Amino acid sequence: MEPRAQATLWQELIQQHLAGQTISVLPPTLKLPALPLAVTQFLEKSRRPDTSLKELSRIIETDSGLTLELLRYVNSAFIGLRHKANTVQQALSLLGQRQSTTFLITTGMEAAVRARKSKLINQGCFWNACLQKALFAREVAKLIGADQDMAFAGAMLQDFLLPILTNDLFEDYLGFVERRQEQPQLITQFEQAAFGWDHALAGACLAHRWYLPDEIVCCVLMHHHGLRLLADAQLCRSSVAAVAISSLLPDQLRQNYSGLEQLLLLEQKWPAFNLDELVNRVDQIHEESGLGVRNDFPLARRCKPAIDRHHEICDGMLHTEASAISA
């Protein structure tokens, strides 16, 4: 799809799903995160064609934390650039404005959410799982020919409101966790029934209010639409589809109870999609990336029981078929 047509598609999806929706549906006592001032100023200035790289660099330099993270990121093995950056301006030049913007959004959001505690979610495990999903979405984007940077950023941000929601609405989400095996529903279905909204819709509303790129807003909005996006002619080769596939991976809340089973079914229908290879690839990239997020719970370890069980079932079926044929 041409860039102009794709931009129009994102705008139409936002209009379709967010028309009349605002964050006012959330409880007034909910303390929403705020992007760091440097990030909001960068986003505002970067939309102006007359803004120089030097001006954008000065904005980032007002935030020492963002400056350090940006330099570490651009010089990491994950980016793999030949030349190292010693200044913010060099980092922005090497990354380019688009990749710089997605990095600052995800980093700024992580900082804002990490500043808040959650009674239900372990922050370290949460961000580890977010990075795993982001790396996984990036690998899926390669397979379908989608924008890898947008897939990474969208997957990293897909659940950014959950630590705050699970803290401020602790009793409700605790009930969801405690009854998880009895009610294997999507977390968004639980949220809609309990609150009249869900974290994907609320997150997209907030991201749209912050003027984040429309494509990222759509990634957050539709991340629980699952495998059906692969049957959508307009979205099947998009970052939105890659993020929706990544959302099927396991996490603390088991947001999609049958997520792994769906990924294993996808493996049977899509020869290029090998779940075992992908999760091991994610762990390898995670280990070598130098992004500063500990991988205490490797993705391959999380997925191994389901993958092994699936392979045993498939082997058993093949053995049964072979026996029937020989008989």
Report on the structure:
The protein is mainly alpha-helical. It folds into two domains: 3-22 and 116-326, Orthogonal Bundle (Hypothetical protein af1432), CATH 1.10.3210; 34-115, no CATH class. The chain has 17 helices and no strands. The chain has helices at 3-18, 37-46, 53-61, 64-74, 88-95, 97-114, 123-144, 148-157, 162-168, 170-178, 187-195, 199-209, 214-221, 239-246, 259-269, 275-289, 299-326. The longest helix has 28 residues, at 299-326. Mean pLDDT is 90; it is low at 317-322.
What is this entry, summarized?
With 327 residues, the protein is mainly α.
Helix content: 55-70%
User: Domains counted in the coordinates: how many?
Assistant: 2
Q: So what's the CATH class of the largest domain? A: Mainly Alpha
The CATH architecture category of the largest domain equals Orthogonal Bundle
Largest sheet: none
Question: What's the average pLDDT?
Answer: 90
For this structure, the CATH topology of the largest domain is Hypothetical protein af1432
Along the chain, the helix and strand elements come as: HHHHHHHHHHHHHHHHH
Poorly predicted tracts of residues: 317-322
Number of helical elements:
17
How large is the radius of gyration? Answer: 21 Å
